[in-house]
Design brief:
- The chain has one domain: Pyruvoyl-Dependent Histidine Decarboxylase, subunit B (Pyruvoyl-Dependent Histidine Decarboxylase, Chain B, 3-Layer(bba) Sandwich).
- Helix content is 20%, strand content 45%.
- The longest helix is centred in the C-terminal third of the chain and has 18 residues.
- A five-stranded mixed sheet has the order 2-5-9-1-4. It has a four-stranded antiparallel sheet with strand order 3-7-6-8, covered by helices on one side.
Length: 152
C-alpha cells in the first residue's frame, strides 16, 4: 500500500469555496474524495503526492475545519502510525484550541489503536494545517491512498 500525507489551508467567498481552496492547496482539489476509516496495510509506504487524474475517485482519511468567524484559529491534523503488521490513521481538528492539545489527542488516539491491536509502531507521522480566519477560512489535513489508476 502507498499513501501520501498532505495539508492545506485557504480563504474563500463561502464555506464550500474555502474548503475547496484548502483541498486545492493540498493537491487534492481536482479529485472526488471518498472518506474511509483509518486502517493501513502492512508495509505501507509514504510517498510524495503525485499528480492525480482530474475527477478520479480517491480514498482518503480527511480532517477538516471551516469557519466564517474572523480571527478564529483553525487546526486540522492527521496522525499516522505504521507497524510491520498494519497501520492506523486518526484525524483531529479544532477551533481556537492549542495545536499541542489537538496533536496530543491525535497521538493518544493512534497510540491506543496500535496498542489495542498489539502492533509495535515503527513510524509515526503528524501532519497539520493552521489557519487564522480573515473572512471565511478552512484548514485540512489528509492521508491519500494511492493506486496506479488515479495517478496521471
Amino acid at each position: 500500500m502507498r499513501i501520501a500525507i498532505v495539508s492545506g489551508h485557504s480563504e474563500g467567498p463561502s464555506k464550500l469555496n474555502a474548503f475547496d481552496n484548502a483541498l486545492y492547496e493540498a493537491g487534492i482539489g481536482d479529485v472526488n474524495l471518498i472518506k474511509v476509516s483509518s486502517m493501513l496495510e502492512s508495509k505501507t509506504q509514504i510517498e510524495e503526492l503525485p499528480k492525480l487524474k482530474a475527477g478520479a475517485m480517491v480514498n482518503c482519511v480527511l480532517s477538516e475545519v471551516t469557519s466564517d468567524t474572523p480571527g478564529e484559529e483553525l487546526v486540522a491534523c492527521v496522525a499516522v502510525a505504521i507497524g510491520d503488521e498494519l497501520g492506523c490513521v486518526v484525524e483531529n481538528s479544532g477551533t481556537n484550541k492549542d495545536f499541542e492539545v489537538i496533536k496530543k489527542e491525535a497521538l493518544d488516539m493512534v497510540n491506543y489503536m496500535m496498542e489495542k491491536r498489539n502492533v509495535k509502531i515503527n513510524e509515526l507521522i503528524i501532519e497539520e494545517s493552521h489557519h487564522t480566519v480573515k473572512d471565511i477560512g478552512s484548514a485540512i489535513a489528509s492521508v491519500v491512498y494511492l493506486k496506479d489508476d488515479i495517478i496521471e
